[in-house]
Amino acid sequence: MNGRPLTARVAVVRCPDYDCGRVAAAVARQFELLGGIEQFVKGGQSVLIKPNFIAPRSHRHATQTHPAVIIAIARLIQQVGGRVCVGDSPAWSNARTCGRALRLDGPLREMGVPLIQLDRPRVVRVGERGTRVGISAAALDADVVINVPKFKAHQQMVATFAVKNMFGVVSGKWKAVWHLRRGGDVGAFSRLLIDIYRYMAPAVTIIDGIVAMEGPGPIRGRNKPLGWLIGSVDPIAAERVCCEMVSLDPNEVPIIRTAADMGFGAAAPEAIETIGDSYRDAICTDFLWPRPIPLRFSPWHVCKSIARQAVILVQARRGG
């Protein structure tokens, strides 16, 4: 992943809804198109599924990766003898509360799959500049990471498809600190996100675009049914395909622009080969994009974030 491959393959699979059987079949086909689950996971390896958990919202909202997608991937990993866990470090609340809101905790428990908070940060150096970042020990210690983000509009980053989801391995309020430090320069923040992605080197990214989020994402947007799973070992190739699916110029997405400057991932459409189902006759032309807001978090914003997180935790425990 440290250069530009001659051809980056992106698997696109049609899946109209979150029926468990249809999702399981679509996920299995995703991996088959990419060479099979055995290409990514070997028996006995520890595997972290890194979904997009951000706030304790139910699966009826397109806020978080849908539980059906997570469960289907976990089952495939178990079938080849992988030791799987599901974990994240949500901006609001924690992984277990977000999992309960999705009604994911029960099925995972029945499968013997731990649902963990990505905490206990270890400071590592990422990127050419050796930037010091606190990344969860659980993420660092996994043999394999599978990145499972949600297809979303984003008020600060235009859209998030693949790369930004790995920011969730950064523990707790370290994320707010980096918004404060790098938020004045969207290019610098995008470079940090790419450096973290490169350091963690997920084996593959599978994007949940069955129901996407449009409008004021990443939390308060609206559901937008698209009906796709998108997967690749090259996250920028996957991001470019996602842009095409919703008629978005990839040059408007800071992460894609920055990746091109850094020589990371697929540099252009001609460097991408799409496999699986054709989406070009079903491109969405009415996807709603948010009004942009500043990326930078002020010290007051960080303090307010912590207070709001406490309120959300109390509401979630009460079933609110």
Please outline what is shown here.
The protein is α/β, with parallel strands linked by helices. Helix content is 34%, strand content 23%.
Per the CATH scheme, the topology name is Rossmann fold
Major sheet summary line: 10 strands, mixed
Number of helices: 10
Structural category is alpha/beta
Portion of residues in beta strands equals: 15-25%
Shape descriptor reads globular
CATH 2nd-level architecture = 3-Layer(aba) Sandwich
CA gyration radius, whole angstroms: 18 Å
- Indicate the low-confidence ranges by residue numbers: 1-5, 311-317
Account of the protein in words:
The chain is of the alpha/beta class and 320 residues long. The protein has one domain: LarA, N-terminal domain (Rossmann fold). The protein has helices spanning 20-33, 67-79, 95-101, 105-111, 137-141, 174-182, 186-200, 235-245, 254-262, 299-317, and strands at 8-14, 46-51, 83-88, 115-117, 121-126, 131-136, 144-148, 150-154, 158-160, 204-214, 222-232, 272-276. The strands form two sheets. Strands 1, 2, 3, 4, 7, 8, 9, 10, 11 and 12 form a ten-stranded mixed sheet that branches. A two-stranded antiparallel sheet has the order 5-6. A hairpin with a 3-residue loop joins β8 and β9. The relative contact order is 0.19.
